[in-house]
Amino acid sequence: MIIAGIFLSFIWGTIWGSFGSTIVYRTNRGMSIVKPPSLCPNCGKILPWRHKIPILSYVVLGGKCGFCGAKINPFYIITEFLSGITGVFAFIFSDSTLSFLLNFFFLWSLLILTISDIMYLHIPVLNIVIATASAVVYQMVQGDYKDMIWGMLIGVSIPLVILLLYKFLRKKEGIGEGDILVMFPVGAYFGFSETLTIFILSTLLGGFVSLILLILGKSRESMIPFVPFIFISVILVFLLERLYLTDLRFVPRFLW
Ligand SMILES: [Zn+2]
Q: Is it the case that residue 95 has pLDDT exceeding 90?
């Protein structure tokens, strides 16, 4: 039963992964998500359904277009695979179908935002909307409105203050507007103190990686995507919270 659940949630995840890669590819090119149907960017032929089965088609066709043989960007199969893993992850840590769906769409949206930020330093707003809706419904089921609102406020206000301070002091952006948007659903899902924990954790991770890049000779001015660090911190806090079956309260609840 559990094996079947893991298998099905992986398949479920890959299907949404396929949709997610479409969102990333098209929103970063200013295209519509629904029209036109998927086609090969090389030969322009419309892809039939059997060329679009997540993971399987890529493997069967050897990573090439089934018509002209042009190489397909491995970003598609990577997105589908990670999305499948997200499905399994949500399945393992959810206790009902509803919580599976809410956890999945929350985490899947963050994954798609992460991939888009890495590839284009730009995030699709559609996934912010889906993540926020999932997080809000999740908290409504839990009944913790007050913490949800505090989480959203803290999630948006800290990076906003940093953004404004940086703009004012150094006349440039220390943090992207997209990162502030991503902290909104994170705040709604995790509530006040865990959101603060996630923000501190992702800032430390981001700072650590920037330092390594600096040592390796990368320019100080080059922008590095921040959403991946938020995503890693979200997974860590999510995992610790579930494994110890308790709310993580690294930060005291001094507000109430
Ligand atoms: Zn082709």
A: no
Ligand 1 centroid vs 43 CA: distance in angstroms? 4
Q: Residue 95: count other Cβ atoms within 10 Å of its Cβ.
A: 8
Give 112 Cα–ligand 1 centroid separation in angstroms. 25
> Would you call 72 helix, strand, or coil by DSSP?
coil
pLDDT at 176: 76
Rounded to two decimals, what is the model's pTM?
0.90
- Tell how far the Cα of 40 is from the centroid of ligand 1, in angstroms: 5
Q: How many angstroms does the Cα of residue 174 sit away from the middle of ligand 1? A: 41
Report how far ligand 1's centroid is from the alpha carbon of 61 (Å). 12
Could you tell me the distance, in angstroms and rounded to a whole number, from the CA of residue 59 to the centre of ligand 1?
16
What pLDDT was estimated at residue 256? Answer: 32
Provide mean pLDDT across the span 147-156.
91
